[in-house]
C-alpha cells in the first residue's frame, strides 16, 4: 500500500481494510469475510486484511462474529524517529475528519526498536493534530479524550520503521455485543465463544448444550448463530456513525438486509450451572438478547445432568482455578470426564481449559486440539468424540461400518482384479521364476555354496556354561541314570 493522501480515502469507492481478532481465530474470520463478499483476503497474525466499499465496512461491523475491530488505513509511510512522525502527521488535513470542537481518541500498537516509548509516539500524534488545527485559518478547537465514545478513533500501528495510521470504525471492541445485562466472574469473551462454536461446525442443525454455562455466553452466541442474528444487532453505537461521510440511508439498508435473514431456532439450546446466581445472570442476558424462550436454563450440577435424547454438541469452559476457584479442581475434571463418557455417548464435546494438564484428567481420547487465548491467559481447546464402552471396541465398530458402506453392490463397480459375484473363484496359480535373463541361463545356486566348517567346541573357564556339543558328549551312563 503506497502513501495514502486525503483524496485517496475520501473519494475511493473501494479501499483496503483490516479486521483484528484473537490469536487462532483468523481462519474463521476469513471465512466470515468471504461470505460477506470481501475480496483480496489475506490472513496475518491476529489480523485479516481485505478490500471492500463503504457498504462492506458497515456490514463487517454489524455482522462479523469473530472480529474485534474494523480498521480503515488512511496513512502509511516509513520513519525511524519521533520527529519524523510529527512532521508527517502535521501535514495531514485533519479537518477532513474532525468536526467543530471534535474529540478524538488514539490507540497504539507499536513493535519497533526505533520507537521504544509508545506513549511518546501517541503524544507526538496528538500534538500534530492540535498544531494543525491551531495553525489553520479557521481553527475548530479539537480536543483529545480518554474514551472511545468520541467523534474519531485513531489506531497507530508501528512495526519496525513501517507506520500505518488507521481510522477505527468500530470504536468499542466488537466483542461488546450489547446484550449483557450483568456479568459473572471471569466471563468468556464473546468473540472467543463464537469462534469455538464455528470451529465445532455449529450451525443450529443440532442441539447445543453447556452444562457449566456461567453467564450464558456460549448459549447466546449459539442462539445468534442458529437464528442468523447479526452479532452487532444489540450494540448501541459504532464509531463510523460519527464520521463526516456517514451515510444514514446506506446504514439502514445494511441493517434491514441483515435482519431479513433471521430465522427461528429449530433445535434445543440448553444450559445449566450449579450456581444459582450464574443461572440468573444467564437468564437476564438471554432475555436481553431476545432468546428468553429459546434458551432453556436449569440450576443443576454437571454430575447430575441427564443424557440428551439425540446427538448433541457440548461446549464447556470449566473453572481454571485462576479467577474462579474450586474446592477440588482435579476431582472436578475427573467427574466431568466420567459424566461425558457415561452420559453423552454419541455426542461431541469441545472443552476450553488452562493449563492442558487439567484436560488430561478427563481421561478421554482427544480428536482435535489447539492453543487459544482467553484474555491474557493461554488456554487449550480440545474436542472429543464421545462413545459408550471402550475406545478399541468403538473404533472397531466404526471401521466395520465404514467397510460395509464401501462394499460395492454392483458388479460394474468391481475392480478388474476381483471376480464377479456369481463367478467361481479360480485357484491361484503359483508363479514360476524365470530361469533366463536376456536369453542366458541363470547360474546354479549350488555353485555358490560354501563347504561347512568343522564344529568348534568352546569351553568357558571359570563357569559352568557348556556348549551343545559338550552336552552331546555326555557319557552314556549319565544319560541312562537320568532316564
UniProtKB/TrEMBL annotation:
Pfam families: RlmL_1st, UPF0020. Residues 408-425 have a biased composition (Polar residues). Residues 434-455 have a biased composition (Basic and acidic residues). Coiled coil: none annotated. Residues 395-483 are annotated as: Disordered. It comes from the Bacteria. Keywords: Methyltransferase, Transferase. This is THUMP domain-containing protein.
Amino acid at each position: 500500500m503506497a502513501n495514502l493522501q486525503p483524496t485517496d480515502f475520501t473519494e475511493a469507492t473501494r479501499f483496503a481494510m483490516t479486521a483484528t481478532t484473537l490469536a487462532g481465530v483468523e481462519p474463521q474470520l476469513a471465512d466470515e469475510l468471504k461470505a460477506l463478499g470481501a475480496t483480496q483476503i489475506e490472513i496475518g497474525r491476529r489480523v485479516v486484511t481485505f478490500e471492500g466499499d463503504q457498504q462492506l465496512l458497515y456490514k463487517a461491523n454489524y455482522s462479523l462474529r469473530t472480529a474485534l475491530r474494523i480498521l480503515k488505513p488512511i496513512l502509511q509511510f516509513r520513519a525511524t524517529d519521533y520527529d519524523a512522525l510529527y512532521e508527517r502527521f502535521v501535514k495531514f488535513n485533519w479537518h477532513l475528519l474532525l468536526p467543530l470542537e471534535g474529540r478524538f481518541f488514539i490507540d497504539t500498537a507499536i513493535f519497533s526498536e526505533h520507537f521504544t516509548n509508545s506513549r511518546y509516539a501517541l503524544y507526538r500524534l496528538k500534538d500534530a493534530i492540535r498544531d494543525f488545527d491551531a495553525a489553520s485559518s479557521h481553527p475548530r478547537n479539537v480536543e483529545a479524550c480518554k474514551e472511545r465514545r468520541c467523534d474519531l478513533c485513531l489506531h497507530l500501528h508501528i512495526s519496525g520503521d513501517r507506520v500505518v495510521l488507521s481510522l477505527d470504525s468500530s470504536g468499542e471492541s466488537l466483542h461488546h455485543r450489547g446484550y449483557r445485562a450483568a456479568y459473572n466472574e471471569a466471563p468468556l469473551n464473546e468473540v472467543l465463544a463464537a469462534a469455538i462454536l464455528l470451529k465445532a461446525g455449529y450451525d443450529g442443525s443440532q442441539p447445543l448444550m453447556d452444562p457449566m454455562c456461567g453467564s450464558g455466553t456460549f448459549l447466546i452466541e449459539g442462539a445468534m448463530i442458529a437464528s442468523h442474528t447479526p452479532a452487532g444487532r444489540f450494540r448501541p453505537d459504532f464509531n463510523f456513525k460519527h464520521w463526516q461521510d456517514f451515510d444514514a440511508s446506506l446504514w439502514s439498508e445494511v441493517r434491514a438486509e441483515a435482519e431479513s435473514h433471521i430465522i427461528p431456532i429449530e433445535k434445543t439450546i440448553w444450559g445449566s450451572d450449579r450456581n444459582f446466581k450464574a443461572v440468573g445472570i444467564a437468564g437476564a442476558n438471554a432475555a436481553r438478547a431476545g432468546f428468553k424462550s429459546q434458551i432453556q436454563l436449569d440450576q443443576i450440577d454437571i454430575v447430575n445432568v441427564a443424557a440428551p435424547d439425540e446427538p448433541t454438541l457440548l461446549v464447556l469452559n470449566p473453572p481454571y482455578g485462576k479467577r474462579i476457584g474450586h474446592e477440588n479442581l482435579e476431582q472436578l475434571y475427573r467427574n466431568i470426564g466420567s459424566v461425558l463418557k457415561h452420559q453423552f455417548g454419541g455426542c461431541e464435546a469441545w472443552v476450553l481449559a488452562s493449563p492442558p494438564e487439567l484436560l488430561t484428567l478427563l481421561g478421554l481420547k482427544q480428536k482435535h486440539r489447539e492453543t487459544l487465548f482467553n484474555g491474557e491467559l493461554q488456554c487449550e481447546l480440545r474436542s472429543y468424540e464421545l462413545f459408550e464402552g471402550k475406545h478399541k471396541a468403538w473404533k472397531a465398530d466404526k471401521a466395520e461400518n465404514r467397510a460395509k458402506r464401501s462394499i460395492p453392490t454392483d458388479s460394474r463397480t468391481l475392480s478388474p482384479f476381483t471376480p464377479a459375484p456369481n463367478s467361481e473363484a479360480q485357484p491361484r496359480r503359483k508363479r514360476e521364476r524365470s530361469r533366463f535373463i536376456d536369453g542366458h541361463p541363470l547360474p546354479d545356486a549350488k555353485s555358490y555354496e560354501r563347504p561347512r566348517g568343522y564344529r568348534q567346541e568352546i569351553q568357558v573357564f571359570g563357569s559352568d556354561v557348556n556348549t551343545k556339543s559338550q552336552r552331546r558328549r555326555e557319557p552314556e551312563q549319565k544319560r541312562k541314570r537320568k532316564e
